[in-house]
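Quick one:
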Amino acid sequence: MDAAALWETFAEHAPRVRPGGRAPARASGNGWFAVVTGEAHPDLNECVLTSRARAADAADLVAFIAVAGVPALVSVASGAGPDVTAPLAAAGFEPAPAPEPLMWCPAQPPRSTAGLRVEEVRSARERDRAVAIVAGAHMMAAEVADRTLAPLPDPDGRVAAWIAYEGDEPISVVWATPGTRIGIWSMMTPARHRRKGGARAVLTCALEALWDADTEGAFLFSTPAGRPFYEAAGFTAVDDATTWTRGASAEFLAAIGQPAR
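Output:
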């Protein structure tokens, strides 16, 4: 899988998952794209400088972020030009310590539920449960996650979500964007429910539901901490991006799986 092509697919799918927010804005240029919700949470304002980016492209992206007036994450593809990070540094962005992989899985992983019940989100009540898991994992208010995440069920079938239940308690969630390349997003498990098989259960059940004869594979953008899990599920890194943040707290970096600077 070509990294540049997969970044383009990522850019096409990302707005489906987070179409809302206080001031949604989408923009792209040569070698960059931005999916901004307008919320005061960097993880909800996602920007990428792809392998085609050069310094001028990074400057355009920095200018867009400045106009939006929100904190943002900027992921810089490993193949970006050597001068591409200068505009980020000049604007006060700093690189996180560990690379974050864009990953690809060419074959459907086998279904594995560890005895948990896994259900697709098909009602507003179930969506509320999915949103609550995401909000808790991201250290954000539930109303913020509610504003930004896609309504479900989606009548156009452009986004879907699955929840794993231990008894009646929701313990893990995944959002997915169907297509010939399936996107995996916002896969979250609260700390108290980890190591129960919930993440693997929602991932494999979502892919089982969406995978068909036309599917090329599935992709996702992982935290450093999540990488071993996804590798065990059959994903491999096609690019290792450096994430740049401005004013990010140690708590936020820890929440996205980054070690302390």
